[in-house]
Amino acid sequence: MSTRFPSPDTLHPVTLPDGTVHKGNVFLKAAIKHPNWVIGDYTYANDFDPPENPADWAERLAPYLFALANDKIIIGKFGQIAHDVRFITDGANHAREGFSTFPFAIHQPERFGAYASTLRPGRDIVLGHDVWIGTGARILAGSQIGNGVIIGAGAVVSGVIPDYAVIMGNRATIHHMRFNHDTIAALNQIAWWDWGIDKILANEEAITGADISRLRAV
User: Fold this and answer.
1) Omega into 120 within 30° of 0, i.e. cis?
2) pLDDT score of 43
3) What is the C-alpha to C-alpha distance for residues 71 and 37, in angstroms, rounded to an integer?
4) E strand map for 62-172
5) pLDDT tens string 140-159
6) What's the CATH code of the domain at 99?
7) How many CA atoms lie within 13 A of 70 on its CB side?
8) Residue 92 lies in a domain
9) Among 115, 132, 149, 209, fewest CB within 10 Å belongs to which?
């Protein structure tokens, strides 16, 4: 008998056949409470060396998204984030208009707080729905990644990535498009990721089997 699909507020949604809960896999909406993260339902991250405290997933994935940051990481639904992925937000940057990029101010407590004002405003990282990020990828500040994008292992991503592109490399470039223009337009219009989970599971074969005619008929 099939068990019910885990709700999006489940911390560890994967249970192995022997009944063991897989602690290295988390639904990020349940794990991350950081105010600068906006996370869609069912988006998960997987790590072979997961943080012991679930709240530490925010720092693990985005170590430069500091408490006073004004930029955000916005991720759609059904995202898939592999081991060793990092989001490199603008908190990692240094001022570079002068002759030196050395952050002198952070080494003096009385000047530390003012240092952020010397940097350009933070740029949000935005991911669409059903995005798969491969092992070791780096997503740079300001990246705008479309629905259904596949990001290859070790890719360094910046800029605007169109829906359903497969990208790889450093700097990441489009290797190919997963589907033709008409199919991509139809998928964005259908927006299966906004359906209830029971409806999604009822049409799982069409979604994972690329049966666009059947999805159009739902």
Assistant:
1) no
2) 98
3) 9
4) 73-75, 80-81, 86-88, 125-127, 132-133, 138-140, 144-145, 150-151, 156-157, 160-161, 165-168
5) 999 999 999 999 999 999 99
6) 2.160.10.10
7) 7
8) yes
9) 209
